[in-house]
Specification:
The chain is an alpha/beta fold and 325 residues long. It is built from ten helices and 13 strands. It has helices at residues 18-29, 64-73, 94-99, 101-122, 158-178, 202-211, 231-243, 262-272, 297-303, 311-322; strands spanning 9-13, 33-38, 57-61, 84-87, 125-131, 182-187, 190-191, 216-219, 225-227, 229-230, 251-254, 259-261, 279-282.
């Protein structure tokens, strides 16, 4: 598979975020000229410490919706044209998107629309990062791309999952009406270095609690299950999704199908941090998801990839990051 990005101009929104910053690093390593956008609501410049050293990286701190609208209303020049657009910008943890609901739905709706207008002008390939949350609290296991989901459109998670569903619809319109090469990756739970300790997601929360000698708090029964994909594998998925000809105009689940309960995650993190942490059961969140597991048959068939990093190895590497001074 040809993954050479040499000479390619690539726009990455959400470039200072957890996934976005790792994607920027990989694109630069592959030889791309990268422009990164972020408003730093949830991203951090610490994630781009290495990237900003590269003469092939241009960072712009901006609101993605406004920037994309201005660019779409102008005329592209060779200096501002993009061969590829990765649209990752959005708060992604429940804590972040519930704290910033308007910014969340705007960047996934209007932001997606204006960036697709830009893709029409530039004749860019476009990749929209959707989410497993579009399946809601699924009644089908594992979840295939053909599953329509079980979603509450006015629930506490709606600003995120409904706006991602809306973004997918916008992509489908631009594919059919303007022939934009638009690829959609439905990202399942992803973890690894550069996650924020206080973003509310289970792995950084448990690690932070264990390292600070606090009880590891298991919300609800602990029998809820998730499937966690290490960041290195997710970036490989995103690179292949953009560069694989057979993936043009496809919707593909991106994740690791290995399912594990939240209690088992807590017990493993307790073990890896010395075995002293107390496990404490607390009240569950409103509308928590019972099971989440991707069917990755389509990713294997089209992208020729299956995650390679085991959950234990990924946790070891994530823990090492959080233990840095």
């Amino acid at each position: 598979m040809n993954l050479d990005f040499t000479g390619k101009t690539v726009l990455v929104t959400g470039a200072a975020g957890f996934i976005g910053s790792h994607l920027v690093d990989r694109l630069l390593a592959e030889g791309a000229e990268v422009t990164g956008l972020d408003n730093l609501i949830t991203g951090s410049m610490e994630n781009l410490v290495e990237a900003i050293k590269s003469p092939r990286f241009d960072y712009i701190e901006t609101e993605v919706v406004e920037w994309a609208l201005r660019q779409a209303q102008g005329k592209p020049t060779p200096e501002t044209s993009f061969n590829m657009i990765y649209h990752l910008a959005s708060p992604a943890s429940p804590v972040a998107y519930q704290h910033n609901p308007v910014a969340t739905y705007l960047v996934n709706s209007l932001g997606t629309h204006h960036l697709l207008e830009l893709a029409v002008q530039h004749k860019s390939q476009f990749l929209f990062t959707s989410t497993s949350e579009i399946y809601g609290n699924p009644l089908e296991h594992p979840q295939k791309e053909t599953y329509f989901g079980n979603v509450n459109p006015i629930g506490p998670r709606a600003c995120y999952d409904e706006s991602k569903r809306f973004g997918e619809m916008v992509c489908s319109i631009f594919k059919s009406r303007y022939q934009v090469d638009c690829r959609i990756g439905r990202i399942f739970n992803t973890y690894g270095p550069r996650m924020q300790a206080d973003d509310g997601r289970v792995i950084p929360t448990f690690i932070n609690q264990a390292l600070t000698k606090r009880p590891i708090t298991i919300e609800g029964s602990g029998q809820q299950s998730r499937s966690f994909c290490f960041i290195e594998d997710m970036i490989e998925y995103l690179i292949r999704l953009m560069t694989t000809p057979a993936a043009a105009n496809e919707v593909i689940n991106l994740g690791n199908p290995e399912e594990i309960t939240i209690r088992a995650v807590a017990e493993l993190i307790k073990e890896l941090t010395g075995g002293e942490a107390e496990l404490k059961q607390v009240e569950g969140r409103e509308e928590d998801i019972e099971r989440r597991q991707p069917d990755i048959g389509k990713a294997i068939a089209l992208l020729r990839y299956h995650p390679r990093i085991s959950f234990r190895e990924g946790l070891d590497r994530t823990l090492a990051y959080f233990q840095q001074p």
